Each structure stands twice: as C-alpha cells, then as structure tokens.
C-alpha cells in the first residue's frame, strides 16, 4: 500500500490532530507538552503520512525566520517502521518548505535516536553544533541547505 503524504499549514482539524497526538503519545509519552508548546510556534506545518486512511507517521515544523525552517518533531508508528516512511515525510516536508522560499532547514536530535541522526546525515544534513541547555541530555544540531 502506497504512502500518501499531506502538508497542512497550521493545525489540522480536530479529528486528524487527535490521530497525530495519539501516535505522538505512543512514541514520546508527552502529547500534553506538545499541545501547549505548539500553539506558540510561528507558521506551523504538519506533514502527515497515511496508509489506508490511517495516520502512520508525521513531521511537524515551524518557521525560525523567513529563511530558516525548523523540523521539530516526527515519528512513525512502530508497526510501519523500516518502510521508508520517515524518509518520504522528510523529503515531502523539504520540497514544500523550499517551495515556500526557505533556504535552510534545521533540526535537532539526540544520540539515543541514532536512526534519525543517520537518516539526517544520509540526506544532506551537516552537524553544526550541540545544544547543551540540558547538560545531561544534549541535542545534536543539524542543518541542510535547501
């Protein structure tokens, strides 16, 4: 079954948002934190992957400034992993934001999420620094020119 990707500027309708939040909660265990934080993000973009009408993955990002887009959160349902869904969602997000005039995409990941780190490097991201706001849980900062 082919993956259908959809880009949604701003928040999706409540039914779709609930499906995304349910998947987010399953993966990250913090959908409440996400909801409160997301409301303050400028030019929020949801890139959602569907199979047979079911949400199987998502990427969420927002504008840092008119040139830089931040790819913030993403996940794939554990029953649909290792099928290239995260890669397809990332590529779809990058095509969309490039078309909107962004020149650079930035993201952060942690060493414990190695698959994400490897995928980002494989698809053109460069490590540009480390975010040590939480010294016991540093984040790797990556950027990619669009």
From TrEMBL:
Which residue ranges does the record assign to the N-acetyltransferase domain?
6-146
- SUPFAM superfamilies from the UniProt entry: Acyl-CoA N-acyltransferases (Nat) (SSF55729)
Q: Name one matching Pfam family.
A: Acetyltransf_7
Top-rank taxon? Bacteria
Q: InterPro entries, per this entry?
A: Acyl_CoA_acyltransferase, GNAT_dom
Q: Name it.
A: N-acetyltransferase GCN5
């Amino acid at each position: 079954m082919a993956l259908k990707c959809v880009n949604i500027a701003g928040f999706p309708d409540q039914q779709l948002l609930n499906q995304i939040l349910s998947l987010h909660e399953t993966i990250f265990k913090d959908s409440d934190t996400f909801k409160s934080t997301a409301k303050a993000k400028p030019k929020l973009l949801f890139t959602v992957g569907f199979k047979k009408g079911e949400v199987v993955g998502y990427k969420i990002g927002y504008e840092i400034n008119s040139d830089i887009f931040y790819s913030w959160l993403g996940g794939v349902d554990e029953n649909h992993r290792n099928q290239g869904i995260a890669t397809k969602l990332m590529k779809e997000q990058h095509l969309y934001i490039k078309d909107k005039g962004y020149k650079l995409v930035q993201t952060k990941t942690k060493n414990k999420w190695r698959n994400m780190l490897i995928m980002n490097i494989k698809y053109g991201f460069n490590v540009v620094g480390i975010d040590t706001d939480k010294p016991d849980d540093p984040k790797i900062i990556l950027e990619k020119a669009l």
